[in-house]
Amino acid sequence: MDALFPWLDAPSDRLAVRVGDAALTQRQLAAACAAHVAALRARGLATGDRVAVWTQPALATAVALVAQAAAGYVSVPLDAKLGDHELAHVLGDAAPRACVAADVDAVAGRAGALATLAVTAPTADAPPLVPVAVRGAPALVLYTSGTTGAPKGAVITDRNVAANLDMLARAWAWTGDDVVVHALPLYHVHGLVLGLFGSLRRGGALRWVPRFTPDGLADALRDHPRAVVFAVPTMYHRLCDAADAAPAIADALRGARLLVSGSAPLAAREHARVERLTGHRVIERYGLTETLINCSARHDGDRRAGHVGPRLDGVELRLVDDARRPLAAGAGGDAEAIGEVAVRGPNVFAGYLNRDDATRAVLDADGWFYTGDLATLAPDGQVRIVGRRSTDILKCGGFKVGAGEVEAALLEHPAVAEAAVIGAPDPDLGERIVAFVVARAPVDAAALADHVAAHLSPHKRPRELRFVDALPRNAMGKVQKTALRALTG
Length: 489
Ligand code: MCA
Ligand code: AMP
Known about the structure:
Low-confidence stretches: none
Helix content: 25-40%
Shape: globular
Largest sheet: 8 strands, mixed
Structural class: alpha/beta
CATH superfamily of the largest domain: ANL, N-terminal domain
Bound molecules: methylmalonyl-coenzyme A, adenosine monophosphate
């Protein structure tokens, strides 16, 4: 198979990556990647080694991630705001040989004894980067939450990335002429694999807006007429709110070639609102960290609100019952039957790092991956996600959060005797993290939110905290979350 970024051998002067006013052409990016890889090699780091990358808001972050993928290193991208406990877990589990950062001072001491290298500026004497061929080797370890316990490291191979991006290229007519504009973090599939690696695999460009605001995204779009926009539903919601008040924002979006949404369900109401304001019907696509993208509306196909399109060409998809037996589907089948989505294909990950037990629970011997998502499958192949097997998995602003990890963090606070976390429907965030707490000492809600933000990550903090005298429990002593959900209305 070819290299992940085929043009690296013969780079041109076309734009490759831009962050704010700083930009790199393909030729400049190739030189920057060569310098970064030379610096890693000078520190004794070899292809196949794991290297953590602090995904700070800088062009150098993109350089490190692209260079490492091209040269066969295994990147472990880190949220620059990762809380202390979760960071210790990730570094302990992934055991990277080094960390790299655009701004070393900003993360000084955070990685303990682990060396943090600065992403160096390109030098004239760096040997050219020799890209590795895509070979099914690990390329990324991406941490993702489960219902209980600490996040697991999903091992994504270079073949997963290449195969999935090529499927998406066919679905979206994605070419080297496209500039993707997004304001997503670079430590998850959406911003990193699709946004950064996807743009560069096509030979096109990414305009990265490291911190989302509607105005910031609209400004970036004005620089790139006919852009492809990647965003989570929360961002479309906020863009529409802003566009209602400022038509210039709607105009900026109207010029785009495609508006793509994913990471969480886009409400039919928002789908209609985006169309009314911008004239675009949003392309919705559906995926998971472990499988990358499984389904998408096609650029020339039906963009049906509430649906995530058909399976991508190259992905096998079926619905299964509780015993994982396939449901009858398609023509003659029951289009309204709900089953768990199972997928198989070159996009499915290699497994969780150090967690064979967890891998076996989701990936069977025949290569089927069980997503935990519940869906219907229409006779024409359109998939509609209707829920999740576990209500202890939440999606808040497009981030996956496990109720169990937030509960465990709350219980580490000395004033907390008991805690239960649920997701409440939220028009902006999709789901809002609501914590019910039985306190043993006086404490205020903001202090507990700060505690979770500092332990795990700011986006896992409860957005609403309710103090209760006792948690509702059944006869076995299990917390009855349905009763708590009823309280949030
Ligand atoms: C707030 N902040 C705090 C605290 N509260 N910091 C410390 N302590 C606190 N108590 C800080 C935050 O760090 C952040 O800083 C700022 O305040 C705002 O935080 P927050 O309120 O959490 O942000 P928000 O407005 O709710 O963010 C909305 C968002 C965000 C921008 C839409 O949710 C987002 O970026 N979502 C993208 C998720 C994503 O990429 N998912 C892909 C997963 P600062 O502003 O400095 O950061 S991959 C996936 O799901 C699959 C494969 C798929 O299908 O894509
Ligand atoms: P993550 O672990 O962050 O990769 O999140 C994966 C989960 O996000 C999936 O299992 C789905 O529950 C959800 N998801 C992603 N895209 C969509 C979508 N378009 N519609 C509904 N849910 C989605």
